[in-house]
Amino acid sequence: MHHSLKEVQQLTGHTDQVWCVAWSPSGSLLASCGGDKTIRIWGKEDKSWVCKSLLTDAHTRTIRALSWSPCGQYLAAASFDATTSIWSRKSGEFECLATLEGHENEVKCVGWACTGNLLATCARDKSVWIWEVTADEEFECASVLSTHTQDVKCVKWHPACELLASCSYDDTIRLYHEASDDWESCAMLKGHSSTVWSVDFNKDGHRIVSAGADASLKIWQDYEPGNPEGIATPDNLPVWKCVCTIGGHHERPIYSVNWCSLSGMIATASGDDSLCVYQEISTEDARNAPKFEIAVRQKAAHLEDINCVSWNPVQKGLLASCSDDGNIKIWQLQKE
Amino acid sequence: MASHFSGALQLTDLDDFITPSQECIKPVKIERKPGKVGKIRIEDDGSYTEIDQTGSETRLEKAKITLNDCLACSGCITSAESVLITQQSQDELYRILDENRQHAQAGNQGMMKEIVVSISPQARASLAAAFKLSIVATAHKLTAFFKRLGVHHVFDTNLARSFSLIETCHEFVRRYQASEVDKTSLPMLTSACPGWICYAEKTHGSYILPYISSTKSPQQVMGSLVKHYFAQRLGKTPDAIYHVSVMPCFDKKLEASRTDFFSDIYQTRDVDCVITSAEVEKMLEKEGTSLSSVEDHPLDTITPDNQSEKLVYSHAGGGSGGYLEHAAKFAASILLQTQVDSLSYKVLRNQDFQEVTVSAEGKPPLKFALAYGFRNIQNIVQRVKRGKCTYQFVEIMACPSGCNNGGGQIRPDGDETQKERYQTVENVYNREVEVVDPFHQQEVESLYRDWLGGRDTDKAREMLRTQYHEIEKSTSALNIKW
């Protein structure tokens, strides 16, 4: 190990477990949400992070996940009350702009596409919904995808195109794209032996990292039609193959995985109260057989299960995590 | 087991695939017998035997959940699927046909049922596409096929659809005129699709139900015609008739099972059994018959007119019935005093979301929409909820592409895709059949006059209109699954 995580600050305020932390695109704000049904917006004043806004009264149950729009003007919040709220800060203050209804029960995750025109949500009702943002800030349902056979845990958009990934309690990952008149599932990634809790793309979107209840990480590589390896691509669609499995560092399910677009490092958060950071090491055939090594294993990073981990998109090595213990921690990755 | 229900229904927990024995939360009344309970033994065949203290054995009855229990419960209606398979299937029709044969052999003519089969135009189109026949040939061959099996009368549900269309048109005009005082009168949402109705009742309840047209679907109008008008004509009671409908859609089985369409007096449903196009194909397979090789037999007529051969006809406005088409033209003539011969459909977000605007100088335009498939239904429902729906009338169907693409239709074979098969069905649907205007059908006119005593009578309301019921969300802890 050549790195360590230095705890920069602990952010207290939530009165129940904290489910999600999300950095704004400019990296200047951190949004958090949890079992206390509130959203907190944290920003830096002088040298420390303080709670700048407290958003309440939009949801009647736990807020499970947050996503910033690429422009940083909107924040979407997914709740167990079956709705997703959209907040706008165009006026300076955060205002609830819309509430998206339609899911039958607990919404588990929300994600904004790179273009800012599409939003995806997923829920315990096993469906993934795609919403289109209209010119007059209305949100219209563009598709309802019922391909997973169980609770859908997480949705994540490709960093550069309108390709969506979702993962589920059915142990699979699905990818979706827009076909002629509707969205459709264009790939199923099978490999995990249990619930897939979290997925993320790397910077250029040619790789996906997934993490799950089997305490392992999997790296998936896309092979475009006409790939030099000669891997068959039926229907002229890219094929995703698992090129690396990383295990043995977490003792309990991995709930969250985040691939840093600045450093290429992967951070994981687990039910064993620890955080891990992985980095790729150079090998002969990095595309088809990449190797990753553990850079940091931060045991007892929190007092209880860690639910989410997120790299700051601008400040290299700045990491946020949140836990069932009700706290958020900000860490700085350091070279030993 | 793969679900055959429409997408809208599958989202309301329908695809959980749990059978009543596993997780059904519906309370069942248990007859408790006094005395001490002995042991219960599970037999190899899965049945239960109770052994009391004296050692005597009694086979225990299974708790049975009927389809009606399932429909009235928001716990799950997945269980409905396994119940449906036993209560409404081609096997049930075969059972009734067998019973009839036995009664005939025993000389119990009085015990025999009069068996009626009503065939929907979409199911006919699916069979026509599968066997590469014309609509008229399919109608005639199906009639012969069912008669060969012992069915007494074979009708076309287009007659019933004429009533549904007329009622929809009048209801829309009435609602439009009442819209200034009654906020829930517009937009009017059509009612022919049972998947949509079931979804609306289970998930949107009180705020959306008032907008849904009270007009019965063609299947249920057919039920009224057969069990009331036709039974009377034959001098029989409704329960002496066994009424089967052939539909493009699995959800129609749920519709036929609604208590609204059950007669307490005669203990009979208006439609006793719904079989799908695909199930008719299975019947043909079972009989070892190709539809193409069956002889032709004209359709029967429900009224005693003297036509030597019943004409096979259809309606304008597409494979889902043409509710928008008829309502828009009728409303233009009544509300705008304008004759509109052809409507222009504008495709919006996708092919399954289209709009039609009808206007006349000096009057506010009338806006109509088609919304098929769950995603488009969703947007309409949310707009209605927020008071932002700009349409006065929406034709809603749960299936993408509408009824010709229904879940009960025959699946494509070989290399054909579902889309290609749908296109074939859509193409054949109105080909070479006369398109009629329901307002100018003599048979319809005479039935309004002689059977219902006019268009706006209590009898007409009883026979042609229905109601919807909000289903409370169940909050049983058993229902929460993680």
From TrEMBL, chain A:
GO biological process annotations for this chain's record? Answer: iron-sulfur cluster assembly
Under the cellular component aspect of Gene Ontology, which terms does the record hold? cytosolic [4Fe-4S] assembly targeting complex
Q: Any stretches that span the bilayer, and where are they?
A: none
Tell me the keywords, alphabetical order: Repeat, WD repeat
Top-level taxon in the UniProt lineage: Eukaryota
InterPro entries for this protein: CIAO1/Cia1, WD40/YVTN_repeat-like_dom_sf, WD40_PAC1, WD40_repeat_CS, WD40_repeat_dom_sf, WD40_rpt
Question: Which positions does the entry assign to WD repeats?
Answer: 11-42, 56-93, 100-141, 145-176, 189-221, 299-336
State the family named in the UniProt similarity comment for this chain.
Belongs to the WD repeat CIA1 family.
What's this chain's function? Key component of the cytosolic iron-sulfur protein assembly (CIA) complex, a multiprotein complex that mediates the incorporation of iron-sulfur cluster into extramitochondrial Fe/S proteins. As a CIA complex component, interacts specifically with CIAO2A or CIAO2B and MMS19 to assist different branches of iron-sulfur protein assembly, depending of its interactors. The complex CIAO1:CIAO2B:MMS19 binds to and facilitates the assembly of most cytosolic-nuclear Fe/S proteins. CIAO1:CIAO2A specifically matures ACO1 and stabilizes IREB2. Essential component of the cytosolic iron-sulfur (Fe/S) protein assembly machinery. Required for the maturation of extramitochondrial Fe/S proteins.
- UniProt name for this protein: Probable cytosolic iron-sulfur protein assembly protein CIAO1 homolog
From TrEMBL, chain B:
Tree of life domain:
Eukaryota
- InterPro entries this protein is in? Cytosolic_Fe-S_CAF, Fe_hydrogenase, Fe_hydrogenase_lsu_C, Fe_hydrogenase_ssu
Q: Give GO MF terms, alphabetically.
A: 4 iron, 4 sulfur cluster binding; metal ion binding
Can the keyword S-adenosyl-L-methionine be found in this entry's annotation?
Answer: no
Supply the Pfam families for this chain. Answer: Fe_hyd_lg_C
Gene3D superfamilies (alphabetical): 3.40.50.1780, Fe-only Hydrogenase (Larger Subunit), Chain L, domain 3 (3.40.950.10)
The Iron hydrogenase small subunit domain sits at 415-472
Q: What keywords tag this UniProt record?
A: 4Fe-4S, Iron, Iron-sulfur, Metal-binding
- Which family does the entry's similarity section mention? Belongs to the NARF family.
Fetch the PANTHER family from UniProt: NITRATE, FORMATE, IRON DEHYDROGENASE (PTHR11615)
This chain's protein is named: Iron hydrogenase small subunit domain-containing protein
- Source organism: Elysia crispata
